[in-house]
Design a protein that fits this description.
Length: 261
Amino acid sequence: MKYRFLLVALVLGACLLPAAEQAWAQKPDVAIVAAASSTLTDPRFTDPQAKLLGTGQFNSVTIVDCITKTPTLAELLAYDAVITWSNTNYFSGEALGNVLADYVDAGGGVVVAVYANSTTTANRYLAGRWITGGYEVIPSRSGTTTGQQFLGTILVPGHPIMQGVNTFDGGTSSARPTTVDVTAGSTKIAQWTDGKTLVAVGANPHRVDLGMYPPSNAVSSGFWNQTTDGAILMANALTYSIPEPATLALLGLGLVLARRR
């Protein structure tokens, strides 16, 4: 009898894996859900959008309005992962924090960058359940440190987020969170040259924080140098936050076997 169950499990796995591999072969769709400027056509939006598309990792990179309204969970579920940061006010930092927490719970990947994970200004950081439910990686509201910095120590060599990231120049601004802390269960992956956190991942596999400001020096001379690997860093962070369907299929196969045991 046990061999019959094993055969069923193997057949199920054989059916699931090709479909999963085909799904993963399709490039993901991601979104920018940021308070980068008061207008969605501002270069503070379109420059990171172009940089992400230029990496070739994504099928699409869509700018989603969170300045004049808060997107719904249904709207966000059209995307595999989102990146958020702020330079102006969210429509509601609390409402967006709540919906992004729901989005993570539903399997979406979320990358948070400066100033959303550093500013002390109300409505420019994610609030609500994002904080109370433990979704932060770099604790928000520590303040922002500036001044020229570069890619420093890679604390987890070979980590997927750091693949292809050989140089990073944050520009004369190099805006980064002042705190060097991460939340319980989170892991620092890479630092700035001054030891501030550049990349950290959460205990939740759908969560990544970047201690950098996404627009490049194509927008303003003090921002990160676009001849270095900031675009790859952002793209890798988004891709890392998305679960691989093939892995899910293998987990399904494992569950069948585990139940039989």
